[in-house]
Amino acid sequence: xxxxxxxxxxxxxxxxxxxxxxxxxxxxxxxxxxxxxxxxxxxxxxxxxxxxxxxxxxxxxxxxxxxxxxxxxxxxxxxxxxxxxxxxxxxxxxxxxxxxxxxxxxxxxxxxxxxxxxxxxxxxxxxxxxxxxxxxxxxxxxxxxxxxxxxxxxxxxxxxxxxxxxxxxxxxxxxxxxxxxxxxxxxxxxxxxxxxxxxxxxxxxxxxxxxxxxxxxxxxxxxxxxxxxxxxxxxxxxxxxxxxxxxxxxxxxxxxxxxxxxxxxxxxxxxxxxxxxxxxxxxxxxxxxxxxxxxxxxxxxxxxxxxxxxxxxxxxxxxx
Length: 320
Hints:
CATH architecture: 6 Propeller
Number of strands: 24
CATH class: Mainly Beta
Shape: globular
CATH superfamily: TolB, C-terminal domain
Oligomer: single chain
Number of helices: 2
Strand order of the largest sheet: 3-2-1-24
Number of domains: 1
Radius of gyration: 18 Å
Largest sheet: 4 strands, antiparallel
Distance between the termini: 12 Å
Strand content: over 45%
């Protein structure tokens, strides 16, 4: 079983004290594609789960969420404030940037467009493959307008945010995951709000927000599964499995420490990113046991994982 993963940094020891704030050591929005400052170095890696080997890796500027498009891998650069484009050899071929990009987290490819969470502006951006802004949603315009410090936040959408340092505590929601879906004929976006501990549904047409799940602790990584949804309840170190109508089906709890992401392998197994233990875990849902793991260096801070199905394997033929 092959797994692709992004590691936001390979120098986590230098980031640790400011994690989930804006680290002073990283450089925001200024690194070129060819010359990445050492403090911004992260990697996109392909791991063999059976052997535990790293088959291939590519150094990138603070890589976070990623998605496979038609012939390109799109990677959100958290502090580069752009979406990096990779070919099948994991070479950087281009990038997409927009003035509203700041502290990027997730990216999703949907019918030829990109849906990006720009946490620094508490926003979700939809862009064409050439970077044209097609649609946006800002939490500050939807009632989420007070930061964790109690400060009222107003955004000038005509400002360029790409070179600004906007720490997590200065954001009103730290929206970090957005998944476009259609429910009952209505186009919506499911989003995770880190500060509120909520998963919400956003109506694409009106921008109206409906809470579908509350009581989470710093959630990340909303995903589809065969019979519903997955959300990582990160600070609570658990995985929440939801039914199609968002009722809680079950929870996966173990001796994890900060669950960053989780993906379904099949009806029995899941892979869980146990971030603070520096490992990927193969979890057996039937026996509620760990059946295997891949460990990686403690200095690597994982962000997203993806199982390589036939489509991914075909795309990465040159490096596998």
